[in-house]
Design goal:
The chain is of the alpha+beta class. A seven-stranded antiparallel beta sheet has the order 17-18-19-20-23-21-22. A six-stranded antiparallel beta sheet has the order 1-11-10-7-3-4. The longest helix has 25 residues. The chain is globular, with a radius of gyration of 26 Å.
Length: about 700
C-alpha cells in the first residue's frame, strides 16, 4: 500500500475476524528497537479511558480484542506482533490506531525497513505498508483499522511524532503524569569541573496510565489529531506535526503503568512449615511417578490444556498467536476422530466459541526431546481440513526457526477451507507463564496459583518439558572436525550445528526474558535481503574457519548488546558487553563510576577500555578496584567505551546434563547478567525503562482457592 491508501478487509480474505498485525524494522548496528502500542478510539477520535491504551506495560484487553504478543527475531531485525480480534471490539470503538515508539534518544530514522503487515486468521499476509521517510521522529503511527458502513478497513498512515510516545498518547486523550526526578550526581576527580545536567524533554517522556476519572480531566491535546476521523475517506494521512508545535520541555515522567492491578507472585516465598527438607510439598500436578514417554505426553497435554481453559489470560496468550478469537474456551484430550479405516487420536483439542461460531485446533504433543513425525502431523492436517477445523498445533521441546520447518506437510490447494500449522515450544509455554505470574499479573489468586503449579510441573526433571536440550547428531562430529582441523566450508553438518545454536539462543532469550519481565531478543546481523538459508550457510562457513559460535542478545533497558562466544577450539565460553562512554563528564569520573557499579561483580571480570584503532588498557576487576585510573589510556586518546567480559569452561556433551554444553551456555548468560549487566546504568546515568511489574506485584500473594 501507499501512504494514505485504504482498503476493505473483506475484499482480501474471508477470515478477517482475527488479525495478526506485525510491525517490523531492522538496524545495521543491531541495537535499534521500538515498542508497539495500540489505541482504541471512540467517535470523537479519543480513547474512552486510559484503559484503551495498550503497550508493553498493559499488553492485553480484558475482552480479548487486543493482545500484544511480543517480538520475534527476523533475518535483519525484529518483528513486533499484535493479535486483534475484530469480533470482540466494542461497538463504540470506531478506530484502532497501531503505533510504535522509541525510548530515550532513539529515533526512527536510525532504523531501516519500517513496515507493517496485516495477516488473516490462517497467517496469510493480506497487505503491507513500508515507511520510507522516517527521520527525527521518536513515535510513529503505522496504520489504523476503522469501521465504514459495517465493514472494517485498513488505512496506511505513516505519521511521525517528534514528541515521542507522550505526545502521541496526549493527542488521543491519554493523561500523562509527570514528576521531577533528581539528577544523578557523578563523582569528579581532582581538579575536574562538575558537568551540568540536561533537561529531559517531552520526546523522552513516557505516558503514565492513570484512572478513568483522571482521563476525563486530561488537558486538551497538544496540536491537531494527526489522523482524520473516518467520517470521509481521506486519500492521504494528515501532514506531519511541525517541530515548532511540540510542547515545552516537560519534567521526566514516572513511565507507563498498568490501568488495573492484578495478582502476581510475591518476591519472597513464605517460610516453610516443614520440620526438615525431606518433606515434599503437595503438588496439584505430580511428576515423579511418570515412567514412560507416553505417560509424560498424556500428562503434559492434560495439565497444559486444563490450565489454559481455567486461566483466561494464559489460554488467550497462547492461542491468540494462532488466530483464535477471544471467547469461551474448552479443551479436550485423547479425542478419537475418523480417518479412513484407521481412526486417529490427537493428543488434544482446543475449541473457542465466539458469537456462536467455533474455532477448533488439534494438538500434537511430544516430550523428552522426542521429534515430531511428519506423517502424523500430515494426518491431522487432512482431518482438520475435512472437518472444517482451523488449525493444527504441534508442541515439543524443539524451537521453531524461520526458514527451517520442524515437519514437512503438504496442503491441498484445491480445498477452499484453509488449515494453518503452528508450533509451540515448551520453553515458550514456561516463558508466558512466568511473564503472567511474576510480572504482568492475572485476574485472581487462584489463577496465579494454578500457573505456579503448571510452572513447577514443567520445570520438574521428570516432566519431559524442559525445552531445547540436544545439539543434535552433528554436534560431536563438528567438534571433532574442529579439533583435528578437518572441517571444511560447505559441510552440511556445520549448518545443522548453526541451527541448533540458534535454537539454543532463542531458548536462552525466553528463559531470561521470563525471569526479567523484559524483552530479550537475539540480534541477527545480515545484509538487507539476505534469506535465512544464506545467512546460516555463511555462519557455518565462519564456524569451519574460526571454530567459534557467536550470538548477541538485545535486552531491554541494558546499555549495550550482550555477546556470547563459544570457542570450540579452547572449550571456553565468553560473555561480554560493550558499554559506551558517557557524553558528558571526565574519563577519570567514568572509570570510577564504572568500578563502583561493579562492586558486586566477580573479581575475575575482565575490563577493557575501548579506543579507536588500538587495544586499550585492560585488567581484572580485582586489580582495578584499588586503582581504577589504570583504565585510562596513557596517551590521552578519546575513550569510546568499555568492554566487560567473563570466561568459563563449557560442557563437552551435546545434551542438557550437568556437564552439557546447553546447560553451560544457559548458566553463563544467567550469571553474567545477574552479576554484571544488572548493575549497569545507561551512559550518563539515565534511568532504566519501567519494568512490567504492576504496583500490586510486591504485595499480592496467591493463595489456595477456597
Amino acid at each position: 500500500m501507499v501512504k494514505g491508501g485504504n482498503v476493505g478487509l473483506a475484499a482480501l480474505s474471508e477470515d478477517t475476524g482475527s488479525l495478526m498485525v506485525s510491525l517490523s524494522w531492522s538496524s545495521a548496528s543491531g541495537d535499534g528497537d521500538a515498542d508497539v502500542s495500540v489505541l482504541l478510539l471512540g467517535a470523537g477520535g479519543k480513547v474512552r479511558s486510559d484503559a484503551d491504551f495498550f503497550f508493553y506495560n498493559n499488553p492485553a484487553a480484558a475482552d480479548g480484542s487486543v493482545q500484544l504478543l511480543g517480538k520475534t527475531p527476523t533475518a535483519n531485525g525484529s518483528e513486533d506482533r499484535v493479535s486483534i480480534d475484530l469480533t470482540a471490539v466494542p461497538d463504540e470503538v470506531e478506530r484502532l490506531v497501531v503505533a510504535a515508539s522509541q525510548y530515550g534518544t532513539g529515533r526512527f530514522g536510525q532504523l531501516d525497513d519500517l513496515r507493517v503487515t496485516v495477516a488473516d486468521r490462517t497467517g496469510e499476509v493480506l497487505l503491507g505498508f513500508t515507511i520510507a521517510d522516517a527521520g527525527e521522529e521518536s513515535a510513529f503511527i503505522f496504520g489504523e483499522l476503522y469501521r465504514r458502513a459495517g465493514e472494517w478497513k485498513f488505512r496506511a498512515v505513516g505519521q511521525g511524532y517528534e514528541t515521542g510516545l507522550a505526545g502521541l498518547a496526549t493527542d488521543f486523550g491519554i493523561s500523562v503524569d509527570e514528576e521531577e526526578e533528581p539528577a544523578d550526581e557523578e563523582e569528579t576527580g581532582p581538579g575536574e569541573a562538575q558537568p551540568g545536567t540536561g533537561t529531559t524533554t517531552a520526546a523522552d517522556a513516557q505516558p503514565a496510565i492513570g484512572s478513568a476519572a483522571k482521563a476525563a480531566q486530561a488537558p486538551a491535546s497538544v496540536g491537531p489529531v494527526v489522523i482524520p476521523a473516518p467520517a470521509a475517506e481521506a486519500p492521504a494521512a494528515a501532514p506531519a506535526r511541525p517541530a515548532e508545535s511540540a510542547p515545552a520541555p516537560a519534567r521526566r515522567s514516572r513511565g507507563p503503568r498498568t490501568a488495573k492491578k492484578k495478582v502476581t507472585l510475591p518476591k519472597v516465598a513464605k517460610k516453610s512449615l516443614a520440620e526438615n527438607d525431606n518433606w515434599r510439598q503437595a503438588r496439584l500436578f505430580p511428576a515423579p511417578t511418570l515412567k514412560s514417554d507416553r505417560e509424560r505426553e498424556m500428562r503434559a497435554t492434560s495439565v497444559l490444556l486444563a490450565v489454559m481453559a481455567q486461566v483466561p489470560e494464559f489460554g488467550r496468550r497462547l492461542t491468540a498467536a494462532f488466530g483464535a478469537p477471544a471467547g469461551r474456551m474448552q479443551t479436550f484430550t485423547e479425542v478419537t476422530l475418523p480417518n479412513g479405516d484407521t481412526p486417529r487420536r490427537p493428543d488434544g483439542v482446543i475449541r473457542v466459541e465466539r458469537a456462536g461460531k467455533l474455532w477448533t485446533a488439534l494438538v500434537e504433543t511430544k516430550t523428552n526431546g522426542n521429534p515430531l513425525k511428519s506423517e502424523q502431523v500430515q494426518d491431522y492436517m487432512d482431518i482438520a481440513a475435512r472437518r472444517g477445523y482451523e488449525a493444527v498445533i504441534t508442541l515439543s521441546n524443539d524451537v521453531a526457526l524461520e526458514g527451517s520447518p520442524l515437519v514437512e506437510v503438504k496442503t491441498d490447494g484445491r480445498r477452499k477451507h484453509k488449515v494453518s500449522l503452528w508450533h509451540l515450544s515448551w520453553a515458550e509455554v514456561a516463558h508466558q507463564a512466568q511473564l503472567l505470574i511474576r510480572h504482568e499479573g492475572v485476574g485472581n489468586a487462584a489463577h496465579a496459583w494454578l500457573l505456579q503449579e503448571l510452572l513447577h510441573y514443567l520445570q520438574h526433571e521428570n516432566s519431559g518439558c524442559h525445552g531445547f536440550q540436544n545439539m543434535g547428531p552433528a554436534w560431536v562430529p563438528v567438534r571433532n572436525g574442529i579439533d583435528t582441523d578437518t572441517l571444511c566450508q560447505g559441510d552440511e553438518r556445520a549448518v545443522a550445528v548453526v541451527e541448533s545454536w540458534e535454537r539454543l539462543i532463542r531458548q536462552v532469550c525466553l528463559r531470561l526474558g521470563g525471569e526479567l519481565g523484559q524483552k530479550v531478543l537475539p540480534v541477527q546481523r545480515a545484509k538487507r535481503g539476505t534469506d535465512q538459508a544464506s545467512r546460516r550457510a555463511e555462519l557455518a562457513d565462519r564456524l569451519c574457519e574460526e571454530g567459534r559460535l557467536s550470538a548477541e542478545l538485545r535486552i531491554d533497558t541494558t546499555p549495550g548488546i550482550l555477546a556470547i562466544t563459544a570457542d570450540l577450539r579452547t572449550g571456553k565460553l565468553r560473555t561480554s558487553i560493550e558499554v559506551p562512554a558517557p557524553e558528558q563528564g571526565y574519563p577519570l569520573s567514568w572509570v570510577k563510576r564504572l568500578v563502583r557499579q561493579l562492586a558486586e561483580a566477580p573479581a575475575d571480570l575482565h575490563v577493557e577500555t575501548l579506543v579507536e584503532g588500538n587495544r586499550g588498557p585492560r585488567g581484572t576487576l580485582e586489580r582495578l578496584r584499588p586503582e581504577p585510573g589504570d583504565l585510562l589510556p596513557k596517551d590521552g586518546v578519546p575513550i569510546a567505551g568499555f568492554r566487560l567480559s567473563l570466561f568459563k569452561g563449557m560442557g563437552s556433551t551435546r545434551g542438557n546434563a550437568e556437564s552439557g554444553f546447553i546447560r553451560s551456555v544457559d548458566e553463563a548468560v544467567g550469571r553474567f547478567y545477574a552479576s554484571v549487566v544488572a548493575h549497569l546504568t545507561q551512559p550518563g546515568g539515565a534511568e532504566r525503562r519501567p519494568s512490567r511489574r504492576t504496583p500490586a506485584a510486591d504485595t499480592a500473594e496467591p493463595a489456595l482457592p477456597s
